[in-house]
């Protein structure tokens, strides 16, 4: 039985990154779209898969798991022989640095970018007024965080070392709209050449490019 990925009708956020990891790891999967308009995510069947009534959820032959980052960690450990490792090296120190980067992504990067995304992109899209003063503060706060990323990425290729790992891909959860070429070019500040180099490498993963350009069917 192939892995089932339960997700939203439009592939985005966590569902997109789980799909990316499945594709990177060459794990065949079925993409099951929930009827969001009909609130299927809050229905009895889905609440059994995820009591929070959210997606993404993965069902791997009867083992059901939710939370994007936890799903991805499970998949890479379960299928070590498929595709790139995406895990840190075996030493305690390499694993500790990976955990450090994972913690920074979830507690520092993700909240900052989610707030920015709403103010810069979400509000204009919904015809709401942007709070320019708040936006300026968010951009300043984000820039300070990215200055630290620049320091880290000056010394190494990826955020947890010299090889790509899941943590690099986790940064895509909040970022579909923030491509370097996009209108909200928050990753493309030329004062941070190593952030640009890193972000180009992460967003140029062929499965990610296919997913963004041609949709989910192109990577299943
Ligand atoms: N922390 C969760 C967040 C999941 C989440 O926010 N899912 C959204 C879609 S991107 C959802 O299912 N929302 C529906 C709802 O809350 O009713 C993860 O990383 O998987």
From TrEMBL:
GO cellular component: cytoplasm
The entry's keywords: Transferase
Protein name: glutathione transferase
One Pfam short name: GST_N
Any GO molecular function: glutathione binding
Reactions that this protein is recorded to catalyse: RX + glutathione = an S-substituted glutathione + a halide anion + H(+)
Top class in the EC scheme: transferase
Gene3D superfamilies per UniProt: 1.20.1050.10, Glutaredoxin (3.40.30.10)
GO biological process, one term: glutathione metabolic process
Domain GST N-terminal: 2-83
Domain named GST C-terminal: residues: 91-220
Source organism of this protein record: Mycena indigotica
EC number of this enzyme: 2.5.1.18
SUPFAM superfamilies, alphabetized: GST C-terminal domain-like, Thioredoxin-like
Family to which the UniProt record says this protein belongs: Belongs to the GST superfamily.
């Amino acid at each position: 039985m192939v892995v089932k990925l339960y997700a939203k009708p439009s592939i985005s956020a966590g569902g997109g990154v789980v799909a990316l990891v499945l594709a990177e790891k060459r794990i065949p999967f079925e993409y099951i779209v929930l009827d969001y308009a009909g609130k299927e995510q809050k229905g009895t069947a889905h609440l059994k898969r995820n009591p929070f009534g959210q997606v993404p959820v993965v069902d791997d032959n009867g083992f059901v798991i939710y939370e994007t980052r936890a799903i991805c960690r499970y998949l890479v450990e379960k299928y070590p022989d498929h595709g790139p490792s995406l895990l840190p090296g075996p030493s305690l120190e390499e694993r500790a640095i990976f955990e450090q980067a994972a913690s920074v992504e979830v507690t520092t990067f993700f909240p900052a970018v989610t707030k920015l995304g709403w103010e810069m992109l979400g509000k204009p899209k919904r015809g709401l007024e942007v709070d320019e003063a708040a936006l300026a503060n968010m951009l300043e706060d984000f820039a300070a965080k990215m200055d630290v990323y620049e320091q880290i990425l000056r010394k190494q290729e990826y955020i947890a070392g010299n090889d790509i790992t899941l943590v690099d891909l986790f940064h895509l959860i909040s970022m579909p709209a923030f491509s370097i070429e996009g209108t909200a070019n928050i990753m493309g500040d030329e004062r941070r050449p190593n952030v640009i180099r890193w972000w180009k490498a992460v967003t140029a993963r062929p499965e990610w490019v296919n997913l963004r350009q041609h949709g989910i069917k192109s990577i299943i």
